[in-house]
Amino acid sequence: MAVTRTQKEIRQRAPLWLLALLGVNLVLMSVSARDASGSKPLIQVWAQAVASPVQSLFSGATGAGSGFFQHLGTLNRAASENEDLKRRLALTETELREARMARDENERLKGLLDLKEKSGYQTVTARVIARDPSEWFDSVMINRGSSSGIEKDMPVVTHEGIVGRVIGVSPVTSQVLLITDERAAAGAVVGQLGTSQAMGSVRGFGSNGLLDMRYVSGLETIKQGDLVVTTGQDSIYPAGLSVGQVVEFKQGSATSPHEIKVKPSARLNSLGEVAVLLYHPPPRTPPPAPTAAAAAPSNNGKAVTSDK
After folding, report:
1. Whose CB among 132, 161, 178, 276 lies 3.0–4.6 Å from 266's, allowing a Cys bridge?
2. How far is it between the farthest Cα atoms of the chain?
3. 305 pLDDT exceeds 50?
């Protein structure tokens, strides 16, 4: 009876053992089998085929994340480099501006030195330290005064032309009335001094930075671009200093003078260094008094008698 039960169990389990043996055989065959090239086991090829999509997904996600952070790092480095370049550019611009200012100052000082040598006058070089903001006065303050020999009504110039005259003096500063002020004036001539007869007087407008030249005969030949120089007849400025250039002109006539506008030679809106001429105008010689002989009436040698 027991033998019969055992044989029955063996017949029932035989298919299971057969399947198990077939499975083991398949596994052994897969492990030992290789791909068509014979270089890799077939099971490894199957495993790679199954895992490849998952690997590609994780690899893509990892690469995207890595690229994103690399891009952020690149942007940060670019922003830092940009800020550094901006700082360097600002520093370079500042150095260039300072170099230009130093160059311009050297040119102005050299021009003032040349002016002193050419004019033959003693000069005091001064720096403009303030400008009157009032609309009533067109004047500047300079850092030299009576302790440097400066006196009232002395002319102030640059190497380009006249600036104005001293109207107030303290021991260490002086106030200069610019030639463009309405109260300022100077004797001037259009053309070359000594040969031109187009003489007159320049006065300031007080608003547009130009000078008004008056009293020039309408018979004189004038044109735009003509130079205007001082005549020395105003007892302020010596003769031959540059005043400016004719920029506007309206023809006069035999009975009316020319209408002339002159642009000052000196750059009055950007004054830095100026020179005060220690100039005293020569005293004017009074005309000789008439002699007694010249004053007596002529009677052709005959005595003057009175009628009775």
Report:
1. 161
2. 213
3. no
